[in-house]
Amino acid sequence: MTVTQSDFRNAVLNSDLPAPSGLTDGSGQVAGKRFDVYRNNVAVSLSEALETAFPVIAKLLGEENLKGISGLFLRQSPPENPMMMHYGAAFPDFLRSFAPLAHLPYLGDVAEVEQAMRRSYHAADSSPLEADVLAHMPADQIENIKFEFAPSSEVLSSSWPIYDIWAFNMIDGAPKPRAESQDVLVTRIDFDPEPHLLPPGGAVFVSALRSHKTLGEAAETAANSDENFDLGACLTLLLSTQALTTATL
Amino acid sequence: MFDAHPRFPELPNAPGVGYKPQHFQNIMEDAGSVEWFEVHAENYMGAGGRPHAQMRMLSEKFPISVHGVGLSIGGEGPLDPEHLGRLKHLCEWLQPTVFSEHLAWSSHENAFLNDLLPLPYTKDTLTRVADHIDQLQNTIGRQMMLENPSSYLAFEESTWSEPDFLREVANRSGCGLLLDVNNVFVSATNLGYDPRDYIAAYPLDKVGEIHLGGHDEDEDEHGATLLIDSHGKPVVDPVWALLDHTLALSGPRAILIEWDNDVPDWAELESEAARAANALSQVPA
């Protein structure tokens, strides 16, 4: 009796199926609980990977609920490759579409923040832009500057208070989330990624710069999108969090 | 192919431990009886950040063994060319002293199951595994070592014993072997044979590294002992005894303590390594 890897895989991921026949305990008895060791190893290792990757989602749902939800997710979306550091890319969308969680509509966007933090942690190293580089640019050319961003930087926009929810669950003493939409800039100084709340118009501004618009064009787009856009505050945030690597004319 | 030129050309016949980032400061201050470190290849396949920075510093001071857990060497399908490329890149920048992988499969039809799944020991498996090892060794430009698995069940279709199968794979592919003594103990208990018979049949001359780790104890539905390779506890006394028995036959080898779950503080992990150093000190060189 040949046991194919398809048979084995299907039975590992679906505990309603019997263990494939042709597997024994070494003395001729059918492998039952012995096959379950593999089922358990796979389910536990993938659930734990998700719990590690999404600590805020784990707090919001509770450990037991997350285990149950992970069990459904990992069977629907097992990893596609051995890069476990990125496993769970489809988890935000799963949370958004999972009907029993419809009363927590912000989960998917919060999970996106956690995904971005993880990508940032493993992103390539880079040297930050020195603040005085801008001071040495000719004043009449400042608006033509284009920036490059650190590979560890990301921008996320949400109609939910994603920064506040993240902070409330991860920082001791952080205030309760406000009822507002929020945008987040993820950056990494040295090795530890951090999310930062972007001020009004900030996400539009940063996204424009990231698509290689000039400083002047990006500022104009951001000001048109939000009357409270503050160019100085946004530039200060980008420099102090080491989001930028080069400035060129 | 590229030329491997590791800073440390050989693993010492001394204790090493599986590297955990939380132990970094302790290790840099005083590694005690630990003389080398093993890392899981897949944890160092990001583009940068702390994992790379720590590994650059660690590899300046200590021999590094890269241990792959995701290539699926026993997979029915072809090896994943992207993953082969990642392994090649890792070996190029880290220049580890040795590279090892498992006699197991983990990927099938675009799903990676994150566990070391078992293989039937047949002619077809032998051909496939030897071909895959050949492909890997050509990609990374160096010999690899293949590790014996922990078994919880047996395949009716198997026609080879595990030691004979590993010997033949090594003969065909030119790979070395990594002998996990805890896995031998776990498999022997689960499948009802004497672990010393397994060691007696094993090609010890091909062994470049020994693994030790902790296991959990359970029972199957018939009341038989079922040991589970968990890497979450100290090594048990019967496994230390099996190590002594093995070293008496093989001579001294590099010995790794694997502790991957419920990782203890550095002092406790180092004391396991010290016990391995003591076992080695009893072996004539």
Automatic annotation (TrEMBL), chain A:
This is Putative DNA-binding domain-containing protein. Residues 4-95 form the Putative DNA-binding domain. It comes from Shimia thalassica. It comes from the Bacteria. It holds the Pfam family DUF2063. InterPro entries: DUF2063 (IPR018640), DUF2063_N_sf (IPR044922).
TrEMBL record, chain B:
Pfam families: MbnB_TglH_ChrH. It comes from the Bacteria. SUPFAM superfamilies: Xylose isomerase-like (SSF51658). Belongs to the UPF0276 family. NCBIfam families: PRK05409.1. This is UPF0276 protein PH7735_02454. It comes from Shimia thalassica.
